[in-house]
Amino acid sequence: MLEFAILGLLQEAPMHGYELRKELTAKLGAIRAAISYGTLYPTLRRLQAAGWITEANETPTTSDVPALTSRRGRVVYEITAEGKERFAQLIAQAGPETYDDTGFGVHFAFFARTDQATRLRILEGRRRKIEERREGLRDVLGRAAERLDAYTMELQRHGLEACEREVRWLEELIANERSGRAPTAPTTGAAGGRPEDNSPPPPGESRKERP
Amino acid sequence: MLEFAILGLLQEAPMHGYELRKELTAKLGAIRAAISYGTLYPTLRRLQAAGWITEANETPTTSDVPALTSRRGRVVYEITAEGKERFAQLIAQAGPETYDDTGFGVHFAFFARTDQATRLRILEGRRRKIEERREGLRDVLGRAAERLDAYTMELQRHGLEACEREVRWLEELIANERSGRAPTAPTTGAAGGRPEDNSPPPPGESRKERP
DNA sequence: GTGTCGATGTATCGGGCCGATACATCGTCG
DNA sequence: CGACGATGTATCGGCCCGATACATCGACAC
């Protein structure tokens, strides 16, 4: 999962570890806590060993001061062609982990780089999974009610409500997706229409308007 | 976290691994997926090594079929006195992990075995943590809006809404707690299923651990 | 009879991810 | 000029997961 997120972020710009963590936190703050360095640095090493990222020479920034770089300094990583290929492959293939809380959140965060068919497939898979969880909770609340104390039941009830709300949210997103609009855009005409402009790598950054 | 849940469940009845997993899934279904056996069995071994649980002889069902027990059969675990002490200690001391999603859920699921002061402390700690997450999301949605694509923003928006809702839920629970009522119970009598298996260890209500 | 299928049941292994910890540089403010 | 917080890289022990293997049992089919 982290591998996916790192490859996705490095396609926007080369970065060093600390920066990567900040961007990761900003982008995924809704679905998980800040990534640990104890995870990040070994993962970077793993990605580098696999050939998906490489160390980029830190820009000497105009008038040199070259020799002083002997200090440990920042290590800037950039994605390789193989890395981009790997990212595309990770987007396309959806394993079961694509639909759990973290996996779905990470995939969703990179929907702007995902084609519409895949977006739809992921949203529907997620909906299915949440519906199953919802049914499980309904079962427990119904059949096993007298075996559970009031606090446990309240926890299930709250979880059930969250499931129902997420299903509704997904329904909306799926409907939007099918009608070719941007995420939540009951908005006015601002830049909405073209769903096909999400092609990933072009230098023109894909900022969609929604202020 | 799993250690906590196992000790809590084994105080209700001795159980073998498979059964433990089912009960765990029923009790914690709202907050996490089913526990993996690759976690459960090593954890049971760890708890046993620590002296907090022991293997209970499966009831030989009086005098018959003795030698046949050579088969691998089920291994029933029961909690020890040290285990109960450990559980009480884990309830009392609240580290940072007590307030993250999983940690809070597990603690909440055993609120029926937790004294009111501790319940209140945990609920307020959780509220504080969620409020911080909420502020973080508001920051991102406000300040960094133009740096994010529409899907990422929608994810944050949805996460923000979930935070706001959880804060309201916690507020309710805290108010109930202060007024001395059971969770959200316009329902039947006391806080629990059957009164006999509830309130197991100390009839003495308020153990004062206030620092 | 026997085949096989799903539920029950215990167990290991590689690997991802975490928190704690350590250490070094830099700008700023008192 | 010294303390402090932000920036920055890195390791280690340990929890937990998914995949996998294997064994027993009742039930239902053939």
Give a structural overview.
Two copies of one chain form a homodimer. The first copy, chain A, has 211 residues and is mainly alpha-helical. Among the domains of chain A are: 2-57 and 76-95, Winged helix-like DNA-binding domain superfamily/Winged helix DNA-binding domain (Arc Repressor Mutant, subunit A, Orthogonal Bundle), CATH 1.10.10; 115-179. Chain A is built from seven helices and three strands. Chain A has helices spanning 2-10, 17-28, 37-49, 81-92, 101-109, 116-143, 150-179; strands at 15-16, 53-56, 76-79. In chain A, strands 1-3-2 form a three-stranded antiparallel beta sheet. Chains A and B meet through helix 5, helix 6 and helix 7 of A and helix 5, helix 6 and helix 7 of B. The structure holds a DNA duplex (30 and 30 nucleotides).
